[in-house]
Structure prediction request, 421 residues.
Amino acid sequence: MELNRRSLLAVIGAGTAAALTGCGTGSSSAGSADGPAEGEITLLTPIYEGAKGKKVLEGEILGGFRKKYPDVKVNVDYTTYAQLNEKITTGLAGGLLPDVLMMGVGWIPPFAAKKAIAELPEKLATAHDYEKRVLEPSRYDGKLYALPVILDTRIVVYRKDHFAEAGIKKTPANWAELRAVAKQLTRDGRVGFDPFSIDLRQCWETFLFSNGGQLFSEDGKKVLFTDARGVEALQFFKDLVKDGSAVYAKKTELGAPTNIQTGKASMMMSTSGQWVQVKEQNPDLIKDDKLGAFILANRRPAMLQGGTLVTQSASSKHPAAARALVEYLATPESILGAASQRGSVPGLRDLNDSSYVKENQFVDLSLQNLQHAVSEGGTAAWMEIREKIKPTLEPAIVGDQSAKDAIAELGRLAEAAIGRM
Prediction:
């Protein structure tokens, strides 16, 4: 792919894969991975954050990998999800893509379509006892391109003590009940529901899915979220704000004590990782059994399934070593280490009875409801579209734009992106 200086700067500055409209730098299958695993390779990862994460990855997981494959040296390139797409697209444009990449759910179709990542042997899909739903985001055009490492679900966390004080005996079963309960729990500076402290894109998607909606057609070529289901999902946020039971400006920052922890909200959209954060910052909330969780529902129950997958560059000069690392990072031992460090959900039935799963109630709830899990993405244009969702929908929540107009505009942007593929 030939990129001029202007287009390369666009890739770096925008941080999206929109510039990847030409040919990929590799083929859909890397050089033979059947030879001996040897050589120096690079792993690009957005997880294993901080000193604790580095210790888990380099000390424990890669320590075991080195014992099994002593002739492979692994260099780790740590990044964040905010910078990951920029690093991948810049590396792809420059022909310097890392040998092994960890990327998000929804990311496989865009990079597989551009032949940036290698197809994996189908036998790897049965190497462990994966939940069927968990493997779906690892495929493109019916072929396997990645293996799941951890899942990050979107659930509703609530304060049991607030419910008890208000005499509320059951969790909301649909949006009408959710809105009524949120109104009832809003008092004295406390909001009844905080849907905004997670990413707005993923929050709206969870509501869309629970309303029976879809993002795209099965082939990824048609936008489906512009129907009434998508509009109603965004309108529900506007209704909550109008009621005063949700306030966009009161969302909390990542890593900071959440509104649930501080008691400034009675319910909030959250992730399974909230359990680990509470355990570290407010252990008494767990000790005193003040937290509960449930799956969002309206026309159907729905739980957004995000997460991190591991895949192999199609242009790796050491494909056997890269393939060995991909497989190793997806073993139960490696997955358990990654999941427990972040409070994430392991996607292997092998780990359902582990002490980690049983101790983390939000992880346990997520595993019990994987049949209701839905993933974002589903189109080769996803990397461009995903960056437009929050800035396009936000004006409808904080301003006067109607939900219908905001969704229609997002639909036009998505259709244009798909048309450019």
User: Anything to note?
Assistant: Residues 153-304+381-419 form a domain with the D-Maltodextrin-Binding Protein; domain 2 fold (CATH 3.40.190.10). The chain has two domains: 5-151+306-374, 153-304+381-419.
